[in-house]
Amino acid sequence: MIAALFFGAVTGLGVYAFVRVFLRPRPGVAEALARISRGQRSMTTHTTTAYESGGALDRRARSAFASLSDRLEVLAADRGWELGQQRADLALMGRTRGTHLATKVATGFGLFLLAPFVWTMTTVAGAPLPTAIPAVAALAFAAFGFFLPDLALRSEAAARRRDFRRSVGVFLDLVAMNLAGGRGLPEALLAAASVGDHWSMVRIRQALANARLYGTTPWVALGDLGREIDVEELKELSGALVLAADDGAKIRSSLSARAATLRRRELTQAEGEEGEKSQSMLVAQMLISTAFLLFLAYPAVSKLLAA
C-alpha cells in the first residue's frame, strides 16, 4: 500500500510538472524577445562542417536536439529562469540556456531508461528483480542525470575561469607596453587584445569591438564582460580604468603592478595545488604500504589465532 501511494504521488507530481511547463501562459515581452532571437538565429548563415555532414541519423538527432534547445530557450525566457550562477558559467563557456536545459533533459531521460533496460536484461537472463527496484532506480538515475550537467558545467567553468584570469595578467602587461610606446588607452587596449588568438583574448577583443559599435567606452565594455562571465579581475580593471583614464603614466604603472599581483596570485595558487597533490600522493603511498604490511602479516596472524 505504501509503495502504491508513493508511486502514485510521484506520477501525479510528474503529470502536474509536465502540464505546468508546457501550458501556454499569457505571452509577455520576454517571450516575444526570445522568439525574435530564435528567428534571427535560424536565419544566420552557417557553413556545414565535415562533422555536421555525417549520417542522416546524426543529422536528425542534432536537428531534434537543436529544436528542443530552441523550445527550452523560449520557455526559460518566458518563465524568467535566470539560472543564477549557471548563467555566468554558460556565458563563459559560450553556451545558451536552451542548450544546457536540453542537455539536462536528454541526460536525465537517458539514465531513466537505463534501469528498465537492466531490469529487462536480468529478466531475460533468468534472474528477475522485483518491479519496485527498477522503478525506484529509474527515478534516482533520472534525478542524477538531470543534475549531472550542472556539476560538469561548474567544473568546466571553474577551470576556464582560472585560464581567463591568467590571460588577464598577460593582457595587462601588453596594455602597459602599448602605453609605453605612446598609444592612447583605447588604442592600447584594442592592440593588446589583438596580439593572440586565444579564446580569452578573442572574448576581450569582441567586447572592445562591440564598445566601438555601441558608442561606449572600452573600460565599461570590460566591466560588462567581467560581470557577464563573473571574472573579478576584469571588473576591478574596469574600475581602475574609469578612475585613471586621463592619466597615461599613472595608469601604466598601475597596470604593471596589477599584472605582477596577478602573477604572484597565480604562482601561489599553483604552489598550493601542487602541495595538495603531493599530500594526496603521500596518503596513497601510506595506504599501499599499510595494505602490503597487512598482506605480509596475515598468514602469521591467522596461524596464531588458529593455534
H/E topology pattern: HHHHHHHHHHHH
Helical percentage: over 70%
Radius of gyration: 28 Å
Give the percentage of residues in beta strands.
Answer: under 5%
Instruction: Provide the structure class.
Output: mainly alpha
Low-pLDDT stretches are 38-57
Task: Tell me, briefly, the overall form.
Answer: flat
Number of helical regions: 12
Q: Major beta sheet, specifics?
A: none
Total strands = 0
Mean pLDDT score, rounded? 78
The N- and C-terminal alpha carbons lie at a distance of 54 Å
In brief:
With 307 residues, the protein is mostly helical. The protein is built from twelve helices and no strands. The protein is 82% helix and 0% strand.
Could you walk me through the main structural features you see in this protein, from its secondary elements to its overall organization?
- The chain has a domain of 111 residues.
- Helix content is 82%, strand content 0%.
- It has 12 helices and no strands.
- It is flat, with a radius of gyration of 28 Å.
- The chain starts with a helix and ends with a helix.
- About 7% of the residues have low confidence.
- It is found in: Cell membrane.
- Its main location: membrane.
- It comes from Nocardioides pocheonensis.
